[in-house]
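User: Please predict the structure of the protein below. I'd like the answer in structure-token form so I can feed it into my own downstream comparison script.

Assistant: Understood. Taking the following sequence of 252 residues as input:
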Amino acid sequence: MNVLILRAPGTNCDTETAYAFQKAEAKSVEILHINRVLEAPQTLDKFQILCIPGGFSFGDDIASGKIFAAKIGNHLFDNFRRFHEKGNLILGICNGFQVLLKSGLLTGNPLAGSLNATLTWNKKPLYTDRWVHLFAEKTECVFLRDIDTMYLPIAHAEGRFVPKEDELEQMKQRKQLALRYRADSNPNGSVFDVAGACDPTGRIFGLMPHPERHIDALQHPHWTRYFTPKQLKDGIPAGSGLKIFQNAVRFF
């Protein structure tokens, strides 16, 4: 079971995302620049999980994830679709979620001019860095199996999920709105408190929070309130984000 972490200029969460998959006992994890895959799209055949991590790809010029998404949408869309149709998994975290939506891999096809949802500026148009409470809906999402709630950090300025007017109900019916902020924890004004969405198969998933930043309990901002040195003597408990990576690996 091999994992590809796909990066671009400005990506800055690739190393810790790779480490999270290693902690989840993936067989191998490789970080590759998007240009390497553009040169040789058959490279995707080596992998079963593809992850686009967080950061500011291409400096977030035009809009967050837009240029990265355009490279995929214009040159690799069919390759990514074939990768998915083989039964493989695709994960996008923060900037990666923006890329998945704007490339059309999650909903709509940009080549046909039909993106059905996007991630845009936070309702209060500021960069927001904080921890949020989340809950998982009952969906087919592979990454959220056996997860009810999570507490994860966010760090974004363009994380407000906005679907087309008639698309929200359709996404609800298709059970795509897999991860939501607790109502009092919505940091950006996302419609329906959406923090993450999957495709109808549950094998493509994007989320704005960063699970790779809470893979062990010591990353929790209040860990000293919950754990004493005596409790930690036998090992550090897992953080709530690790389960996402374990679910992906165990799927195979």
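That's the full token string. The domain at 2-250 is CATH 3.40.50.880 (Rossmann fold).
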